[in-house]
Design a protein that fits this description.
Nucleotidyltransferase, domain 5; seven-stranded mixed beta sheet; single chain; six-stranded mixed beta sheet; globular; 497 residues; alpha+beta
Length: 497
């Protein structure tokens, strides 16, 4: 019987594939890292063919030991705003993928602001004008690859975020789910369609755009003859959501007011706000969370650009640690950060600041500062950034959030989640199964192909591994947070423009 679901979890630094059974247990997992390209300061690129190759290999490895016919459906989740343009006929990318972290379109975004378009874009898309989102990245590629705009107008090239690219590779179908479409700065989240006027303003021909679709429906079936995926031929690809929306779904945040934070490369706090979009007044954005059975759910979201990537920076650039888990050992070697504050604005600051020109800083160092202080300050800055988001979310939602569900690679750190509970003064709940992003994609696919019948069945599968409660005195935590805000002020607007 086909009662397993394959999730393709294509992230910023690696491509993963996970097979889940009906109990939500992981049967197999494969992962392949891929190359990060930094052609200029503030620019980040990926090779789309390497993305596809690593994801294909991960999928092949994950299903290698399973009998043919055991996979009922495939769900896809992805780094969201990352932008790929490719030739419709050959399938060859016309340029490297421009990654969500990339800031090369900051000046274009400033020009859109000068044109007074902030309210127009906000009212339709739920987003602020920022280089983070896909629309300006598409425009950049069209402007910088000779002859490409004309080809795009003729329908010879296609745009997609990463889930679109993977679904196209697997099935030949050109679609995007509503959750990813809502991160482009081109999508009307009220009417659930491309905004023709905004496409015109950004100079994006509509002929290159994928068809927007729900998050849990059959998009197509795996083509025969894909190397390593032969046993998946004919299996429906029937679930898709951007990684953060997938994590919200995987955390079973099905009711309005339920919230999660993913401690990944960036940090992303999302709260389910129900069937109608809520406009943020506090620097957050509004996105489609998912659409299942024709019912659309919306989310408030705050995005931090550098969370877990700050730990990677300690490891790869500063060489203060040799592996990510080592940060916990170092951070535990000191009682506190000794007054050191790290502001990880390597690619600017996201919500609630939206400062494209901020840059990173280490403040408060003295002659007595050691590696342990810096390591602890890095964990503290991740927790402080999530606190920024949660305070904004409380303001927008008009209700208190009494629990935060945590997931993502850095959520394995007990120190980090304890710091988070202390700053927020609420419990932080880490599930037994932390692969919630992948499980969200699997759940969306599994609902479509009948592995699970409804969200109640999915909710029953979630188990808490540990709940972190506030421990430090509130006055001490408040003082630390005030210091963080002072440090952000020093790093703000650093680049001359």
């Amino acid at each position: 019987m086909s009662d397993h679901v394959l999730a393709l979890d294509q992230g910023t630094t690696s491509s993963r594939a996970i097979v889940f059974d009906r109990q939500g247990r992981i049967l197999s997992l494969a992962q392949y890292p891929f190359t990060q390209h930094y052609p200029q300061a503030g620019w980040v690129e990926h090779d789309p063919m390497e993305i596809w190759d690593t994801e294909r290999r991960a999928a092949a490895e994950a299903v290698a030991h399973l009998p043919e016919g055991s996979i009922a459906g495939i769900g896809v989740t992805n780094q969201r705003e990352t932008t790929i343009v490719w030739d419709r006929a050959t399938g060859e990318p016309v340029y490297n993928a421009i990654v969500w972290q990339c800031r090369r379109t900051a000046e274009l975004c400033e020009e859109l602001k000068r044109q007074g378009l902030e309210e127009r874009i906000r009212s339709s898309t739920g987003l602020l004008i920022d280089a983070y989102f896909s629309g300006s990245k598409i425009r950049w590629i069209l402007d910088h690859v000779p002859g490409l705009r004309q080809r795009a107008e003729r329908g010879e090239v296609l745009f997609g975020t990463v889930e679109t690219w993977l679904i196209w590779q697997l099935t030949g179908v050109h679609v995007t789910d509503y959750s990813n479409a809502s991160r482009t700065m081109l999508f009307d989240i009220h009417r659930l369609c491309w905004d023709e006027e905004l496409c015109g303003i950004l100079g994006v021909p509509m002929a290159m755009l994928p068809t927007p679709v729900g998050s849990s429906q059959v998009y197509g079936r795996v083509k025969p003859g894909i190397p390593g995926l032969e046993k998946l031929a004919g299996v429906p690809v029937c679930g898709a959501a951007g990684d953060q929306q997938a994590a919200l779904f995987g955390q079973t945040c099905f009711a309005p007011g339920e919230a999660k934070n993913t401690y990944g490369t960036g940090c992303f706090t999302l709260m389910n706000v129900g069937a109608a979009p809520v406009r943020s007044r506090a620097g957050l954005v509004t996105s489609v969370a998912w659409q299942v059975n024709g019912e659309t759910t919306y989310a408030l979201e705050g995005s931090v650009f550098n969370g877990g990537s700050t730990i990677q920076w300690l490891r790869d650039e500063l060489k203060i640690i040799s592996s990510a888990p080592e940060i916990n050992v170092l951070a535990s070697s000191v009682p506190d950060s000794g007054g050191v504050v790290v502001v990880p604005a390597f690619t600017g600051l996201g919500a609630p600041y939206w400062d494209m020109y901020a840059r990173g800083a280490i403040l408060g160092i003295t002659r007595g500062t050691n590696r342990g202080h810096i390591a602890r300050a890095v964990l503290e800055c991740i927790a402080a950034q999530v606190t920024d988001l949660m305070l904004a979310m409380r303001q927008d939602a008009g209700c208190d959030i009494t629990l935060l569900r945590a997931d993502g690679g850095a959520s394995v750190s007990d120190i980090l989640l304890q710091l988070q509970a202390d700053l927020l003064r609420i419990p932080v709940d880490r599930p037994e199964m932390v692969e919630t992003t992948a499980f969200g994609a699997a759940a969306l696919a599994g609902l479509c192909c009948g592995v699970w019948k409804d969200t109640d069945e999915l909710r029953a599968l979630r188990r808490s591994e540990k709940v972190f409660l506030p421990q430090r005195p509130q006055a001490d935590c408040d003082a630390d947070y005030r210091l963080w805000k002072r440090a952000v002020g020093r790093a703000a607007d650093w680049i001359e423009h």
